[in-house]
Write a structure and sequence with these properties.
Elements lengths: L1 H11 L3 H6 L3 H10 L5 H10 L8 E4 L9 H6 L4 E6 L2 H11 L5 E5 L12 E7 L8 H10 L1 E12 L5 H14 L9 H11 L2 E7 L2 E7 L1
Parallel strand pairs: 1-2, 1-4, 2-3, 4-5
Antiparallel strand pairs: 5-7, 6-7
Length: about 220
């Protein structure tokens, strides 16, 4: 499984930004047809708005991907300590190329299922478009919760099943087989139950087959 994930990350690194940001006509068609027109740019804006502009604590971004959505925000948060973690060296290298001149930003290659941080080390954990790719989602939820301080925020967005037959078909027959997504995937109801069990405050929204939320531990 690890080799398959590495290969998938490597093969997608050159199209990742274009697809997510709908940078080309074909990307726009893909998003409109398979993802009900859900705009990742807008979801990213909403997600990042949960983080105060004067935030000065410890923030973990996992997976950072290429930092295509977060570069501007992370540069602005100069008083914060931001750790960008990704399993893929290819993705991490792209993020470094964007942000390596920022002294408050650190880069770690690692596994979300075994985060290299102590308990309650982070004030915010952000996970954009990550959980649908993580092979062991139980460990990922457990670890992101473990490293978050009491009163801290868990902010995320990712694919959930059961919202669109067309999207579910794409995920099952193409994205999973390519190694870009990994089963199992929660429904919205299953996810809400899980979040309400782990966190004291849950603000959860859906846009097509994408869920985005902010939770407080």
């Amino acid at each position: 499984m690890a080799d398959k994930i590495k290969s998938a990350y490597h093969s997608s690194k050159n199209i990742y930004d274009d697809v997510l940001t709908q940078g080309s006509f074909l990307s726009k068609l893909y998003i409109r047809f398979f993802w009900s027109g859900t705009d990742d740019n807008e979801i990213a804006r909403r997600i990042l708005s949960y983080i105060p502009d004067d935030f000065s604590g410890n923030l973990l971004d996992v997976p950072v991907g290429t930092a295509v959505f977060t570069e501007k925000k992370w540069r602005f948060l100069s008083k914060a300590k931001i750790t960008c973690l990704d399993y893929s060296k290819d993705m991490l290298d792209k993020a470094k190329a964007r942000l390596s001149d920022c002294e408050h930003i650190f880069f770690v290659q690692g596994d979300v299922g075994q985060l290299p941080f102590g308990d309650e080390a982070c004030d915010i954990v952000l996970s954009m478009n990550g959980f649908h790719a993580f092979p062991d989602k139980k460990k990922a939820f457990k670890e992101t919760h473990r490293v978050l301080k009491k009163g801290g925020s868990f902010i995320a967005c990712f694919y959930i099943k059961g919202k669109s037959k067309r999207t579910d078909w794409l995920v099952k027959n193409i994205l999973c087989k390519k190694g870009w997504f990994t089963r199992p995937f929660p429904t919205e109801e299953q996810l809400r139950k899980l979040l309400n069990r782990l966190y004291t405050e849950v603000e959860c929204h859906t846009d097509g087959s994408i869920v985005y939320f902010k939770c407080v531990k």
